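Journal club prep — side note

Before the paper discussion, L.F. wants everyone to see what a predicted structure for a comparable chain looks like in token form. Sequence:
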Amino acid sequence: MQLSIFSLFAAGLATLALAYTTPVGDPSGNPISRPGLNEIVPVGTPYTVTWNPTTPGTVTLVLLRGPSTNIVPLYTIAEQIPNTGAFVWTPATTLEADTTHYGIQLIVDATGQYQYTTQFGISNPSVPSSSSSSSTASATVSSSSATVSSSASSTASVITTASSTSSSVVVVSTSSVTVSGNATSSSASGALYVTEVVTAYTTYCPYATSVVVNNSTYTVSS
């Protein structure tokens, strides 16, 4: 998939910025129990999102995707619904399959107080995952046709946005890039995008919460 997480983030902000209350502060209240950690939710089938309502008024649910350090909005699941602790959601059939990296954000409409689910997966046989199965890093220079089939090096500084079990995006922000490896071109100008496969990721819970795994509930006290 050629779309970078940065362009996805920009598109998401442009679409969603005015659609619901802006989240403020740190996650608190309304702990979400389903979807649970690494649970797989099928597309096109009604699925009940559940949480423990701790605030009055209405809430908004937003679908997110990305590694835990850089998760971004995809679309609004429901806006200004009663905070009853449950909502039946039918995931869009256009969602890409992924064993993790999806999440839901619950936002209190009146205050901007918010809460996250743990990261879960989506199953979709019609739209397979774009995650690479190769252990070799690959890179594409966006301003030219040069493509690197092995690891790349550059004279520029590198900004690493995240790492996960599937892939991460690295951007070289200089205007002059020198690429080494089996490339069709030795140099190009513009940003360099690198997909890197790593072996592990860490989910950080900044407060006490509960996690549902394989129909068992685990309480994280601190």
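L.F.'s comment for the group: Residues 47 and 95 are 15 Å apart (CA to CA). Keep this in mind when we get to the figures.
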